[in-house]
Amino acid sequence: MRRVIPLALACWTGIFSLNVTAQEYRRHNVSVTAGAGLPRGELRPLLNNSFGAGVNYHYRLIPYLAPEVGFDTLFGAAGVRDFLDTDFGSLRIRDYQQFLTFGGRVILPVAKDRVQFYGGGGGAYLRYSERLSQPFQGSNFRVSCPVCSLRDGVGYYAKAGVDVAVDRAQHFRIGAGVKVMRGATGGDPLGALPGFETADRWVNLYASFGFSF
Q1: Could you give the CA distance from residue 208 to residue 80 in angstroms, rounded to a whole number?
Q2: Taking a C-beta distance cutoff of 8 angstroms, is the pair 97, 72 a contact?
Q3: How many CB atoms lie under 10 A from the CB of residue 56?
Q4: 11: enclosing H helix or E strand
Q5: In 10 A of CB 140, how many CB atoms?
Q6: Do 128 and 96 touch, CB atoms closer than 8 A?
Q7: What are the Cα distances from residue 76, in Å, to 48, 79, 155?
Q8: Quick one: pLDDT at residue 135?
Q9: Of the candidates 87, 96, 85, 104, which has an alpha carbon nearest to the alpha carbon of residue 152?
């Protein structure tokens, strides 16, 4: 009996230690991204490569799997440089391409989670719009834009990349990746885009800075 009790305590301690070790990863992960959006397919002759930025959040249900949601914006891929005459003068019209993605990622942790390779995918909402530069930034007063175009649609995305922790506690991470999106959008003509449905494809390259907790 004297041997059984210490042995049982040792086994319980070992199991508890393994469980604690298995839980030593950051569940909440937020990252901001910056890079370039490259139109492909039918969009390639109609739109330009442009700068983009975004934000992404994923929650690690287990060390190897996480649902995620992201939002990305490209600035001026359609090259719109129009103006609208208003009571406040000529206000500039610019175009933006926005993508809302929702899906999941598979994570391969390496070096005690310091390095994370990942890949994933899911659904996507694509929205291209023109916006009017407002004369009074930061106020609730808005000048409407009756001539601004809007087109949107749905599709899907796939992504792959790598993140590396830059501190011992693994709260801060930097990384790089690629996101490919396919979908169909329709609506108003916008820049060189026609006023009917197009089959759209994008390749977005990005660098990321993230915080995990």
Answers
A1: 28
A2: no
A3: 22
A4: helix 4-22
A5: 5
A6: yes
A7: 8, 5, 21
A8: 86
A9: 96
**CA nearest to 29, candidates 72, 60, 65:** 60
The candidate with the shortest Cα–Cα distance to 77, out of 160, 166, 192, 189, is 192
Q: Kindly give the parts of the chain with pLDDT less than 50.
A: 1, 4-23
How many angstroms separate the CA atoms of 206 and 211, rounded? Answer: 16
Q: Which domains, ranges and CATH numbers included, belong to the chain? A: 26-212 (2.40.160.20)
Q: Which pLDDT value is given to residue 61?
A: 96
Closest CA to 77 of 53, 54, 95, 55: 95
For the record, the structure tokens of 156 come out as: 């899907």
Residue 139 DSSP class: S
Check residue 144 and give its pLDDT. 92
- Tens digit of each residue's pLDDT (9 = 90 or more) over 98-117: 999 999 999 999 999 999 99
Contact present, 94 and 62 (Cβ < 8 Å): no
Q: Tell me the two tokens of residue 116.
A: 């994370």
- pLDDT for 17 equals 38
